[in-house]
Amino acid sequence: MNNYIKIKNLYKIFGNNTSKALDLVKSGITKEELLEQTNCVLGLNDINLNIPKGKIHVIMGLSGSGKSTLIRHLNRLIEPTYGEITINGLNVLQLSNKELLEYRQKNMSMVFQKFALFPHKTILENISYGLMVQNISEEIYQEKSKFWLRRVGLEGYDQYYPNQLSGGMQQRVGLARALATDAEILLMDEAFSALDPLIRAEMQDVLIDLQLELKKTIVFITHDLDEALKIGERISILRDGSIVQDDNPQKIILNPSDNYVSDFIKDINRSRVIKAKSIMKKTISMKKEDVPIIDSEMVLEDVLQKITKTKHYFVHVKDNKNKIIGKITLKELLNGIQRPNKESKKYA
Amino acid sequence: MEWLTKFPEMDRTELREFKKSVDNAFTSFSRNYGEGIENFFDPLLSFLVGFEKLFLNTPWPITIFVILSICWLASRSFLIIFGTFLSFLLIGYFGMWEDTMSTLAIILVATLLCICIGIPIGIAMARSNKIQTLILPILDVMQTIPSFVYLIPVVMLLGIGKVPGLIAVCIYAIPPIVRLTNLGIRLVDKDILEASESFGANYWQKLFGVQIPLALPTIFAGVNQTIMMALAMVVIASMIGVQGLGLPVLRAISNQYLALGLMNGLAIVVLAIIFDRVTQRIGKRMQRYKSD
User: Fold this and answer.
1) One-letter-per-residue 3-state SS of chain A
2) Which residue among A205, A230, A265 closes a domain?
3) Which residues from B are below 8 Å from A130, CB to CB?
């Protein structure tokens, strides 16, 4: 269960004579040196990743870091140079062409940055596409598509064409199209990046809402840290084709693995992201009166409000079973909000 | 220093021998296989003849009605209908009805032939870069070689008549539809193709569900160009025995009949304009999804 998607030693090199380039890369040559010596571009460098079932796993990186390349390996829109990908125990790279088509039809669907809707098909036909490809009878796919059209809040738009809809609505169609096939895995390639901030936030909420109910395995790609923190249950940070940190969001913020990651997170509003449970001490004060008790999932911004209203400048933290599990003092709170000191411009 | 001022050319007798041997080879080829090739094209001939007869034997009011209905279905434009109606009345009144019908028949058959052959070739070119590099120079030759040059072997093989004329028209008219089919398919947005692939569509589902529908406006521009070029070949085709509006033009050239030449020439122009406007409208109507 925990390792639904397993990626092992995955390399991707673009160019000619990749086998020679692969040997060079394995011997530890850098991306720039590789380009100079062989004219090959290193896309992915020794990726090892386990993605659990039923969670939103975010892969984050700047443009050119290889995140879109990586996600396209999962449904083999891009073939790897070397490595292993198993999904639910099935070696995806060994599928024949026919099996691959069926695998894409049944087990995976994808949402695209630029929506990639079919402009010549109506909204309903767009949503039906994944089912039509499977030669499912029209009655069934019409019904399913209509269900998903309602589910993403676009009832009544069946017969419109994509360009008659706004960006946000188009991506709702993209989402419905991907969900309509009932595939277990949802690949989202910068799905909300092309939308303006308000609509983006709205779509993130739509996704989170749907996920509460559907529990799909979602691989979500983004370059936006706020988005990653908002929806990601686990985040992998990609840089120059390698994974530099793979952790849960709280740990990434509190313990960035290197200067690159700490540079990445330095601009976020820590008080709005870090949760009480991440910074609390597991000691409990004897004083009970006047000490507010807060939820362990509360973000520091809210903790601050509570703490300033007390005499003692500390709060108790309870877990979801209402049991007090620790406390946070003002000093710890400020430490948590403060940016870590070790940042520097040069990456390790 | 003579070699600088005079090109070092092949020996005259050798050159003559060379030309002669090519001619002889082709003559013997056409003697041996000409009949077989002619038989091969027989179905085409009977198709063309049948088409022509249909046009000529149908009473003219019915023909005009059918033509106008087709124009209406294709273009939905009163202006085009009215223009077409007027043009055909004038053509008939000035005594060019039968020639026009013959020309229409050969243009339609040639266009159909070009579509049936050209679109699959264009699709194959779009699928593989190798096929594209192979076919592009052939298309270049077909478009630039003077038509008289390929009339010679065609006539040697098949003699004078409708079929060689049809072939000549097709050679000249097919390149645009091949090129634009190829181009249209290649221009389809990569993202949209990727989306189709990500849902597990196979090659044919991609081709007929996504690529061709999105390429249709471009393909239709190719059909339009093909028809125009076929019409442009009408006069030359009449030199090798094709009936129609080209024949009077040819007669007018050799006898300096200004009025005859102008009238028939204008009739060709009118046909061209009608074909062009109607097919352009179809192309536009195929892109309705682009407007709000």
Assistant:
1) CCCCEEEEEEEEEECCCHHHHHHHHHCCCCHHHHHHHHCCEEEEEEEEEEECCCCEEEEECCCCCCHHHHHHHHCCCCCCCEEEEEECCEEHHHCCHHHHHHHHHHHEEEECCCCCCCCCCCHHHHHHHHHHHCCCCHHHHHHHHHHHHHHCCCCCCCCCCHHHCCHHHHHHHHHHHHHCCCCCEEEEECCCCCCCHHHHHHHHHHHHHHHHHHCCEEEEEECCHHHHHHHCCEEEEEECCEEEEEECHHHHHHCCCCHHHHHHHCCCCHHHHCEHHHHCECCCCCCCCCCCEEECCCEHHHHHHHHHCCCCCEEEEECCCCCEEEEEEHHHHHHHHCCCCCCCCCCC
2) A265
3) 199-200
